[in-house]
Design goal:
The structure is a single chain. The protein has 156 residues and is an alpha+beta fold. The chain has 2 domains: 79 residues, no CATH class; 61 residues, OB fold (Dihydrolipoamide Acetyltransferase, E2P) (Beta Barrel), CATH 2.40.50.140. It contains 5 helices and 5 strands; from the N terminus they run αααααβββββ. It has a 5-stranded mixed beta barrel. Helix 2 runs antiparallel to helix 3. The radius of gyration is 29 Å and the shape is rod-shaped. About 5% of the residues have low confidence.
Length: 156
């Protein structure tokens, strides 16, 4: 009885569904491909194309691995989307780039404080800046602004 269940299409179809459902609880986009392999073996067994357990296991392994290594990269990109290659201006949703700031503290070792829109910000600069100077935001790293004494595109 158990041997016929393991060789039967019912086992493979149930295993495939269980693996696909498990992907919702333990995401990682791995179990889904083994679920695809199990469903494929279940259908091949249902239609009588394969019948022995050894061939079923071999087909399961081959189909699952081909699906995993052949499709995972494409599916991951599709599920997560692509952000790479966007211009920095597109990433500046807060409107920080090229904003004028007032230097609040002298920059020591390239770090200091600036004021932007009435708020104090931590900032970094490769130029020596003094309290009271005006600077411009050229970039940011998290909540730390990168500033310089001239706006981008101006002559030195």
């Amino acid at each position: 009885m158990l041997g016929s269940f393991l060789n039967g299409y019912t086992f493979w179809l149930l295993l495939g569904l269980a693996l696909l459902i498990s992907e919702f609880f333990v995401p990682g986009l791995v179990a889904a491909f083994f679920g695809i392999g199990a469903l494929a073996v279940g259908l091949l067994t249902l239609f009588g194309i394969i019948d022995s357990l050894a061939v079923q296991l071999l087909c399961f392994a081959l189909i699952s691995l081909v699906a995993l290594f052949g499709l995972r990269r494409h599916c991951t990109r599709w599920l997560k989307g692509m952000v790479g290659g966007r211009a920095e201006d597109d990433l500046d949703s807060a409107g920080l780039l090229n904003q004028r700031v007032t230097v609040l503290t002298d920059f020591v070792d390239g770090a200091g404080d600036v004021q932007l829109n009435g708020a104090k910000w931590d900032a970094e600069s490769s130029e020596p800046l003094r309290s009271g100077d005006t600077a411009w935001v050229t970039g940011f790293n998290g909540i730390v602004l990168k500033v310089r004494s001239r706006p981008d595109g101006s002559a030195p």
